[in-house]
Amino acid sequence: MKHSTSLSLDPLAESAVIAVCALADAAGPERWSSGAIDDAATALDVLAGALSKLSPEAAELLEVVPAAVAALRERVEHAPAAAELVRRADTAADPAVLSTGLRRALTAHSLTGHRVHQLGPALLTVTLDAAHAQALSVLLAARRELPRQAPAAEDELHWGAGPAETAAASLAVALAAYGPGTYARVLASGQITAGLSPTAAAQVTGALNTRPSPAAGSSRPRRRGLGDGWKGIDAGR
Predict the structure, then answer these.
(1) Greatest Cα-to-Cα distance within the chain, rounded to the nearest angstrom
(2) Main-chain dihedrals φ then ψ at residue 126, nearest 5 degrees
(3) 3-state helix, strand, coil in the chain (%, to 5)
(4) Residue 64 to residue 119: CA distance in whole angstroms
(5) Which residues fall within 8 angstroms of residue 52, CB to CB, at 6 or more apart?
(6) What's the pLDDT tens digit per position in 169-210?
(7) How much is the pTM?
(8) Which of 123, 130, 143, 185 sits at 20 to 30 Å (Cα–Cα) from 179?
(9) What is the average pLDDT across 106-135?
């Protein structure tokens, strides 16, 4: 009976692939409606949920999908038209180039253990542990000379609710300065996933690759809030 049940998934999965391929062939920048995007996003979310039951490892790999789907829905709701979201993405750099560049920039600052995923042309995600997410937020804030905290966002982002929540809130505020459509959320694993538009990803990569010039005669700044393990923040100096 188990063998028969397993085989019964084959035609269902094949039908899903056929339907998705037909949708992809018919899709275009001018053809997506808000309803169609919501239905496609729901299908993606449901399929990721089903595949996540394969194993704990599969669940961890697919944790980024619900957050990505939620972010996509938020962007569509706030966009003047769904087509405008796609047109903005088409003007950005090649996704593969963006992903590779961001990976290298993170590694150059010793922000290791990250995962960078390109979820379609309009969304790139970065997953880090909470400590590295906090370090990245400090680094990005310094590049834009942002305050360490944003009082207006404290209630919304739950500053101090826990190490992971604080890191996600800090990273969300830092990323917002690099372009619209960014976010940072805590996954069930306790890791932080951040979403960036292609434009924001390019700006973040550029910021990470740029060394700020210290003021003449100034002493080396103290790394406030970072322990001895954050030598990677000043790597290469």
Answers:
(1) 78
(2) -125, 130
(3) 60, 10, 30
(4) 9
(5) 58, 59, 62, 63
(6) 999 999 999 887 788 988 888 889 998 888 889 899 999 988
(7) 0.53
(8) 130
(9) 87
